[in-house]
Amino acid sequence: MMRQSEIFQRVDNILGETETEKYSPLKDALRRVFEDMRVFMEYQLDTHSRVDGLKRDATTSIHTILRLYGISSSVNDELLCLLNEMANEATQEAPEAKRFFDSLPVGAYRTDPDGNIIEMNHALLDMLGYSSLEEMQRVKAEDIYADPAKRDAITRKLLAKGTVNNARWTAKHKDGHEVTVREDAFVVKDEDGNPMFYEGTLMDVSWQINLDNAVAGYVATVNHENERLVQENVDLREEIERLKSTAPHSFPAEV
Questions:
Q1: If you ran DSSP here, which 8-state letter would residue 37 be given?
Q2: What is the mean pLDDT of the chain?
Q3: Can you give the pTM of this predicted structure?
Q4: In what order do the strands lie in the sheet with 107-111?
Q5: pLDDT at 1
C-alpha cells in the first residue's frame, strides 16, 4: 500500500502548483479523501467488493469536490487513475493479509466505534460458537459481553490511552455459557484523532481460571489437613500429660 506522503505528493502533482496555491482548501479536501481511502483499504482483509465500495464512495467525493471548485475533467481523470491504482494494490494484498489474519492461533477482531463487527478470525468465531463472520455480524460487540458495562470501561480506556492490555472479562458463548477471556486491544484513529476501528485479540483463559481455582482448592485442603494434624498432635500431648499426672508410675521417667 502506498505511503501517505507518496499519495499526497501525487495529488499535489496532479493539481499543479498554480491550483495548489490558489485552492488550498481543495487540496486539503482531496488529500482527506485519498487518506481515508488509504486507511480504510489498508484494513480491508477479504473481498474485492469492499474495496470496490470504498472506491465508489471516494469517486463520488472527488467528483463533488472538483465540481465545487470548477476543476477540469482532465484533473478528475488523473485523480481517478490514482484511485484505481490504490484499489488494485489493495485487492492484490488483501488475500495474503486475510490468510494471515485467519491463521492466527488467538482470536482477533475489528469493530467500529458503534460496535459493528467488521472482521473476526476463525479462532474467535470458534471460541464464541459462531459458524461464520456473517452470522457473527448479526450481533453487536456489546452483545458478546456478559456485563456490557465492562465494554464501556474498556472503550473509555482505549480512547484515553490508545491501548488496553491484559483486560479480563467474561464473554457470552452463542449457546449461553460463559467464557473468561483476556483482551489486548488498540484504537485506529484518523488524522484528526477520531476513532475509526477498535482492533484486538482475545484469548480464552477459562482453563487458567479453572486451574487457579483447582490449585486454590488443593492448597486450602492441604492447609486444613495440616491444621487438623497439628491439632491432633496437640490433643495427643495434652492427653499424655493428663495420663502422666493421674498415673505417674505407669510412664517411664524422661531421660
A1: H
A2: 80
A3: 0.55
A4: 117-120, 107-111, 195-204, 178-189, 163-172
A5: 61
* Cα–Cα distance, 32 to 199 (Å, whole number): 23
Extended strands (E) in 144-245: 163-172, 178-189, 195-204
**Residue 60 scores a pLDDT above 60:** yes
C-alpha cell at 164: 488496553
C-alpha cell at 98: 486475510
Coil, strand or helix: which one is 191?
coil
Residue in the block written with cell 457473527: 136
pLDDT at 127: 93
* Cα distances (angstroms) measured from residue 201 to each of 45, 57, 80, 107, 185: 16, 30, 36, 5, 6
Residue 38: its pLDDT value, please?
75
Q: How far apart are the first and last CA of the chain?
A: 91
Distance CA 185, CA 159 (A): 11
Residues counted in the chain = 255
- What is the amino acid identity at position 37? M
